[in-house]
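Retry 2 of 3 after timeout on previous attempt. Resubmitting structure tokens to design endpoint.
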């Protein structure tokens, strides 16, 4: 069953060469989001992995701005958990903590509300895609500032040639699909 679900998910990822700039092969998840069976399969596969890896030890799913918001709440619901948001700078009300990270073309910042978690709570970070790992690494830094325990980071797609997994250091990482 899991193999059939994974094939269903993989068939809904399409590629666009030279987008957004020449030399980049963009992996588009739009067809997956458009197809309820494929989207449901992606959530089921991620949830099953997390159940096997962590049982009932997860307190929250953290969705990353912005496409992690598409997977985070559904994954949290499937696991019977709440979802917290990690947003780009300036998008959250109230007191926040922030972490900056490098982009190919500069620098960016992520924020989380200071009261989003209690120290020691266990979190899984989710995004649609892991490329260079900068965003996910910054998210882990933010959660560390709140003294939360990051159990794992997960994504639908991983671009293995960019070695983003290495930036996460000791934090376990899982992806459903891997592309060069």
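Retry 2 succeeded. Sequence:
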């Amino acid at each position: 069953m899991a193999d059939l679900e994974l094939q269903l998910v993989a068939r809904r990822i399409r590629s666009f060469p030279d987008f957004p700039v020449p030399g980049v092969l963009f992996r588009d998840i739009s067809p997956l989001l458009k197809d309820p069976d494929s989207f449901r399969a992606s959530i089921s596969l991620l949830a099953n992995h997390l159940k096997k890896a962590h049982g009932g030890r997860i307190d929250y799913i953290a969705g990353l701005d912005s496409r992690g918001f598409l997977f985070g709440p559904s994954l949290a619901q499937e696991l019977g958990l709440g979802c917290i948001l990690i947003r780009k700078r300036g998008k959250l009300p109230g007191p926040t903590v922030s972490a900056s990270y490098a982009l190919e073309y500069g620098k960016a910042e992520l924020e989380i509300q200071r009261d989003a978690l209690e120290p020691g709570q266990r979190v899984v970070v989710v995004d649609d895609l892991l490329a260079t790992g900068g965003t996910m690494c910054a998210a882990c830094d933010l959660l560390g500032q709140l003294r939360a325990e990051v159990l794992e980071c997960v994504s639908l797609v991983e671009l293995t040639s960019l070695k983003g997994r290495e930036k996460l250091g000791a934090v376990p990482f899982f992806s459903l699909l891997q592309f060069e």
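Attempt log closed. The chain is about 35% helix and 35% strand.
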